[in-house]
Amino acid sequence: MSSDHLAEPWQPTSYMDPDTTFRHRRPVHDLITTITPTDDHFVLSHFGNARINLADWRLEVDGLVDRDARLTLEDVRSFPRHEVQSVLQCGGFPDDPRINTHNASNAIWAGADLAEVLDSVGLDRRTSFIWSFAPDHGTYASWSADYYVKDLPIERVREGGVLLAYEVNGEPLTPEHGFPLRLLVPGFYGTNSVKWLCRIAAADHRAPGLFSTELYNDPIPSPSGGMPQRKPVWAVAPDSIIVSPRQHERITHTSVSVWGWTWAADEIATVEVSLDDGRSWQRADVAGRVQHSWQRFEFLGSSELVGKTVVIVRATDIHGTRQPLEDARNTAHRIGVVLT
Ligand SMILES: Nc1nc2c(c(=O)[nH]1)N[C@H]1C(S)=C(S)[C@@H](COP(=O)(O)O)O[C@H]1N2
Ligand SMILES: [Mo]
């Protein structure tokens, strides 16, 4: 199938409401439960929220496959149902990888495994990327587009757990979270989990598009002044949020408790807490993870300091990759407190 055909998205009847960028989030200090209730789950929709008419919605599956398919929601539901507990984290500003927006939630998603659906239509061996399309369109900051398209390396799909998700926390998806169907890519930044999914296509090259090959690609320093390279915003780097204490909280210095959530594409091995703005670090306790969930960390200790200080938390994953203290999508979280 030609690339020209691949670039033309099929679209169900839909409208945008609102038709401007839609963001919703709770303060991190309110994220006190392991599973984030759906109403508290953050929402990020670049162009606004698409409202889909289920009656004419289909999931088109085409590109490098033996048999094109047009699946109804019932067809998708007829595949084995998989549940995945997973953190979903926004990658932050699509053109600025130096800011951590601390925008994350943890939920139980259910749906069909994308790898099983692709096997059912016969995937061509040349496939290296799976493209995913949605009909939302409009303007976002200074950019505009007629639809949303992302791509995933086939290796991630083959690992399993990439869902065509129709449920979150035991209920059908809400419109803001992608009704009737969304992609859920555990371990990858939220931008890849395409909401209002209407088409997936198998291809042997990356999907050209505003959100795939233009925005959401981080510069990587080139060693010897060669051609600048860019890396797609895919796997989630080690990250963490401090749920407690809150900004400006007064804490007794002899009994300091710091807790929150930590996660990465792979499991987090250690979390360190600093009570003196990064001069010294102590280990926190870290719970194990369930599938791709976030992990709770907790630190109980004391400080010789009294007065204003900054609490910082940094996580390290099982590969030894540690959160940086500045200028990154996963910059360590800092909270200013007063020790009394
Ligand atoms: N179709 C479509 N899918 C999308 C987006 C979008 O704007 N349009 N935003 C992405 C981004 S940047 C994030 S962080 C997640 C947020 O998912 P949520 O709103 O369900 O939390 O959806 C992703 N999927
Ligand atoms: Mo995002």
Key features of this structure:
340 residues; mainly beta; Sulfite Oxidase, Chain A, domain 2; Immunoglobulin-like; 5-stranded mixed sheet; 5-stranded antiparallel sheet; globular; binds ligand MTE; binds molybdenum atom
What can you tell me about this protein's structure?
With 340 residues, this protein is mainly beta. It folds into 2 domains: 14-232, Sulfite Oxidase, Chain A, domain 2 (Alpha-Beta Complex); 239-339, Sandwich (Immunoglobulin-like), CATH 2.60.40. Helices cover 8% and strands 39% of the residues. A 5-stranded mixed beta sheet has the order 6-5-16-9-12. The chain is globular and about 70 Å long. The model has no long low-confidence stretch (mean pLDDT 95). The structure holds the ligand Nc1nc2c(c(=O)[nH]1)N[C@H]1C(S)=C(S)[C@@H](COP(=O)(O)O)O[C@H]1N2 and molybdenum atom.
